[in-house]
Amino acid sequence: xxxxxxxxxxxxxxxEETARADLYGLLATLYSAPPSQDLIVxxxxxxxxxxxxxQHAWAELVSACRTAQAEEVRDEYETLFIGxxxxxxxxxxxxxxxxxxxxxxxxxxxxxxxxxxxxRDESVPETEDHIAMLCEVMRYLIASNDIGQDSLAGQQxxxxxxxxxxxxxxxxxxxxxxxxxFYRAVTGLARSFFEVEIQAFDxx
Length: 204
Description:
This protein is mainly α. The chain has one domain (16-203): TorD-like, CATH 1.10.3480.10. Helices cover 62% and strands 0% of the residues. The two termini are 27 Å apart. Residues 2-14 have low confidence and may be disordered. It comes from Noviherbaspirillum suwonense.
């Protein structure tokens, strides 16, 4: 299981499920590592139309990318999510669910991933409860061609068990940090998208 390294934007002939998978993939990419200048430029050149909450959040990220420089974004990422010793903002679910890393929530997640036939790539340093890894799993569940892996019930169960209980707290932590600039725009998109997902799953 690895984080997404490529990005495809929604086009008018793509379905809603493809758009969902793409957005999870984008968030996985942005939270796994600071973006390259090429990716920043790609997002900056994307269309930002529509009046909905999610469309507005996307427009904010597009706007942020139009003035962002990769080196500055890298410094921000390292300040927020790496730091010296303990990161300023944790990106791991176990921290928000139990107060510690490598705790029972991670063990439960690993069990569910094993049942899905997924495991962490040994070259990836982050544990499976990293937000980027979880977004990548959701992308896989939506886009997978494996029988049974792309069911809405499976997506809903994974999201409800391993993401929904703590995602908004993560977004709040990033928004509240004084060093968050580019990643405040990223998180605005993430928050809006996660809230749409929560509402959609509740109605399913």
